[in-house]
Design brief:
The protein has a single domain, classed as Alpha-Beta Barrel (TIM Barrel), CATH 3.20.20.70. It is built from 12 helices and 10 strands. Helix 2 packs antiparallel against helix 11 and helix 8 runs parallel beside helix 9. It is globular. The protein starts with 6 loop residues before the first strand and ends with a helix. Helices cover 40% and strands 17% of the residues. The chain is of the alpha/beta class. Strand 2, helix 3 and strand 3 form a beta-alpha-beta unit. Bound molecules: coenzyme A and zinc ion (ZN).
Length: 301
């Protein structure tokens, strides 16, 4: 059983910034990442090494890594293929997040590959990673697909088994890409995948969006099922360009508040985090979705 401390993985610089069409100044992005680390965020997804044609906002990833490499937080980047992983390693990162979607329709739309091709891509990456690299696999649309609707549990189980066979020690994140999951289904899916003998060596994370207002409840359902790593975005920034209708990730401050109230410290300084969330909310073109940020500051933290 993992230690009973929640680990927040801050994804505003990746899932959040990618939703802003006009590229933000590199220095502004680096400043926000540095402030997130200063507020105590233990893990930060800096961005993604993807095609700049697919996501122009991520074209400056090498500079972002350069400007943040001294931070005490664990720093990761999302990659859709071997080329992205190679670029992330070349930039100096030692944490790679490989993404593919359980649903064929979303995978084709997001990374232009079939699920089978993405699994081959994962195998290439596992073979290419130097020893000591931390690998996380994001299973997007683990609950619901923006094109096909509800994803059958058996499709998820099949995908998890295949991923675990290729990456038996990776952290596996079930991603509620559309924010359509409910707490009961989150618990059921995590209970199911953790019981599979194939996943005995894997660890788990939950990546949630708050489109239907279930984000905190879903994360806490995952917590009750033994999950200890949670992706959230300060200010709830986001809205995936590859998941029509989805809003931002669950706001970091909202989940940190829930854990604090329950006596589970995340190590994050909530007042400082709220200050960064305010700056994120002021970015041009960003759509936010926090609750705590709108509570009078003296009562919020
Ligand atoms: N980093 C930078 N450039 C990349 C790349 C990477 N990881 N992988 C491919 N490219 C480049 C290719 O060199 C090519 O460039 P060119 O047009 O100048 O020759 C172009 O991207 C297209 O490459 P191709 O292999 O034909 O890929 P594609 O058009 O089928 O697109 C992806 C596949 C995965 C590269 C692209 O869909 C992508 O980057 N998607 C990211 C989606 C995303 O970030 N979603 C949000 C996260 S869930
Ligand atoms: Zn997401």
């Amino acid at each position: 059983m993992a230690a009973a401390t929640p680990i927040i993985c801050e994804v505003a610089p990746r899932d959040g910034f990618q939703s802003i069409a006009n590229p933000l100044p590199t220095e502004a992005k680096i400043g926000i990442i540095r402030d997130l680390a200063a507020a105590g965020c233990p893990r930060i997804e800096l961005g993604s090494f993807v095609s700049p044609k697919a996501v122009p906002q991520m074209a400056d990833m090498a500079e972002i890594v350069e400007g943040t490499r001294d931070l005490p937080a664990e720093l990761a980047a999302l990659v859709p293929n071997l080329r992205g992983a190679e670029n992330a390693l070349k930039a100096g990162l030692r944490q790679i997040v490989y993404v593919f979607s359980v649903s064929q329709a979303h995978n084709l739309n997001n990374v232009r590959q079939t699920v089978a091709q993405s699994l081959t891509g994962l195998d290439e990456i596992v073979k290419a990673l130097p020893k000591g690299t931390f690998l996380r696999v994001d299973l997007a649309t683990a609950f619901d697909c923006p094109f096909d609707g509800g994803v059958p549990l058996m499709d998820l189980v099949e995908a998890v088994k295949q991923v675990a066979a290729i990456a038996p020690n990776a952290e596996l994140a079930l991603c509620d890409t559309t924010g359509r999951a409910n707490p009961f289904d989150v618990a059921r899916r995590f209970d199911t995948v953790q019981m599979l003998p194939e996943t005995a060596g894997n660890t788990w994370a939950f990546h949630g969006h708050n489109t239907f207002g279930q984000g905190v409840a879903n994360a806490l359902a995952a917590w009750q099922s033994g999950v200890r790593v949670f992706d959230t975005a300060a200010a709830g920034l986001g809205g995936c360009p590859f998941a029509p209708g989805a809003t931002g990730n669950t706001a970091t401050e909202d989940l940190v508040f829930a854990f604090n109230e329950g006596g589970r410290s995340t190590g994050i300084d909530l007042p400082r985090l709220l200050d960064v969330a305010d700056r994120i909310a002021a970015l041009p073109g960003g759509v936010t979705g926090s609750h705590l940020r709108h509570v009078p500051r003296g009562r919020a933290a």
